[in-house]
Specification:
CATH topology of the largest domain: Rossmann fold
Mean pLDDT: 96
Low-confidence stretches: none
Number of domains: 3
Structural class: alpha/beta
GO biological process, one term: fatty acid metabolic process
CATH architecture of the largest domain: 3-Layer(aba) Sandwich
GO molecular function: isomerase activity; lyase activity; NAD+ binding; oxidoreductase activity, acting on the CH-OH group of donors, NAD or NADP as acceptor
Pfam families: 3HCDH, 3HCDH_N
Protein name: 3-hydroxyacyl-CoA dehydrogenase
Radius of gyration: 22 Å
Strand content: 5-15%
Strand order of the largest sheet: 3-2-1-4-5-6-7-8
Largest sheet: 8 strands, mixed
CATH class of the largest domain: Alpha Beta
Number of helices: 17
Shape: globular
Order of helices and strands: EHEHHEEHEHEEHEHHHHHHHHHHH
Bound molecules: nicotinamide-adenine-dinucleotide
Helix content: 40-55%
CATH superfamily of the largest domain: NAD(P)-binding Rossmann-like Domain
Length: 407
């Protein structure tokens, strides 16, 4: 078995949002990067954007012009797989589509030397299925960066069922070299962070159907200490991403929790990038401005779906959104997709803006007392059904007077 500690040359596939940030990570840390996209224009645009980021850094006196140029010089672009032959690690960041990713991994497998590691930046897709498109599944894993990838600290290092330990170790070491908080995750839908986010997100939407406004939800969660409320986050990510993927998958569009998103997208209100989403933005500004029209639309949608508005307190918003994270985190631990509660907390602090002073969702649950957390979750289950069935591990710990994190 080859040793993988010696990663010297890196490749990145895809010159979109994530590819650009991932390239910066590596060149900033001194790695030469070969950057491939099928679309030459995207590569050109990517280089221009990276140069602009470095120009701002020079203006802020983070480094000088010569350093900016040295970083840019470490990037070479190509549209030919043959140029990837001697790379040690390739990170793929193309559209979130299984068939496309499998096609690319088959090509990479043929083009890149047999000892190289092949990684995917997929947000949700099955690493094992991607690995099955290659003859080297032991050298395939997920390297999941967070947007903006050159700024967000978190890196989920996702182990497939065949991924070799020395491949994991080599990638954890690379993660350190590029300054990331690397967290080991198992191969489940959404891994650690996005799997939990789905539950949080569902609660953030249900409370709006029941009577809160998106703005109130953000105020409540920002009051709790989240760097950004969920609706501001949807605007930053792009409201259309989920909308388009639901359309592609042909499922999920009919659920009332996404009707408001559907309406916004039909009006081309995609979020920050289109100047209007759940919030309004002035030209050239990222400052989210409360939009009462969104609140009105939220009410109309809820009424169409048969809800009668009630007062939803900020305490209830926080309890439901944060305990949804806690319960799913506990399930992830039960199923062995995270190694520790501390790892889950690192994912949330470094990837999702969870307030550092609260430790993370699992440490926060400990601070409340797991007996109280379990009682709240059981009350929610009695009122609202199986979404709130408590994780087995939570029940066990709460009944034993235990905690998720080390005291
Ligand atoms: N955007 C995010 O916030 C985010 C965060 C984490 C992970 N991800 C994941 O990262 C991946 C990329 O997302 P993105 O938002 O950067 O996408 P994007 O749409 O911005 O960019 C995709 C790029 O892939 C290129 N591409 C398409 N087909 C190709 C091919 N056959 N060969 C080479 N390049 C090809 C396109 O030209 C485009 O430049 C997805 O798997 C996504 O789930 C995205």
């Amino acid at each position: 078995m080859a040793a993988f500690e010696d990663i010297k040359k890196v490749g990145v596939i895809g010159a979109g949002t994530m590819g650009r940030g991932i390239v910066m990570n590596f060149v900033n840390a001194g790695y030469p990067v070969t950057w491939l996209d099928v679309n030459g224009e995207m590569l050109e645009k990517g280089k221009v954007e990276i140069a602009a980021v470095y120009k701002r850094s020079v203006a802020q006196e983070r480094f000088d012009d010569a350093e900016a140029q040295a970083r840019l010089n470490r990037i070479s672009t190509t549209q030919e797989y043959a140029d990837l032959a001697d790379l040690d690690l390739v990170v793929e960041a193309v559209y979130e589509n299984m068939d496309l990713k499998k096609k690319i991994f088959t090509e990479l497998d043929k083009a890149v030397k047999p000892s190289a590691i092949l990684a995917t930046n997929t947000s949700y897709l099955d690493i094992d299925e991607i690995a099955s498109a290659t003859q080297r599944p032991t050298q395939v894993l997920g390297l999941h960066f967070f947007s903006p990838a050159h700024i967000m600290k978190l890196l989920e290092v996702v182990r497939g069922k065949a991924t070799a330990q020395d491949v994991m170790d080599a990638c954890l070491a690379v993660g350190k070299k590029i300054g990331k908080e690397a967290v080991l995750a198992g191969n489940c839908h959404g891994f650690i962070g996005n799997r939990m986010l789905e539950k949080y997100s569902r609660q953030s939407r249900e409370v709006v159907l029941e009577g809160a406004t998106p703005w109130e939800v953000d105020q409540a969660l920002q009051g709790f200490g989240m760097a950004m409320g969920p609706y501001r986050m949807y605007d930053v990510v792009g409201v259309d991403l989920g909308w388009r993927s639901r359309q592609l998958a042909g499922v999920g569009r009919g659920e009332p929790i996404v009707w408001l998103d559907n309406k916004l997208c039909e009006m081309e209100r995609f979020g920050q990038k289109s100047g209007h989403g759940f919030y309004k933005y002035e030209a050239g500004s990222r400052q989210a401005i409360h939009d009462p029209e969104t609140d009105m639309m939220a009410r109309e949608v809820a009424e169409e779906a048969g809800y009668t508005a009630r007062d939803v307190s900020s305490d209830e918003i926080v309890t439901r959104c944060i305990l949804a994270l806690v319960n799913e985190g506990a399930r992830i631990l039960d199923e062995g997709y995270a190694e520790s509660a501390e790892d889950i907390d690192r994912v949330y602090r470094f990837g999702y803006g969870f307030p550092a002073e609260r430790g993370g969702p699992m440490a926060y649950a400990d601070s409340l007392g797991l007996d109280k957390v379990l009682a709240e979750i059981r009350a929610l289950e009695a009122e609202r059904g199986e979404f709130w069935t408590p994780a087995a591990g939570l029940v066990k710990l709460a009944e034993a007077g235990g905690r998720f994190t080390k005291a």
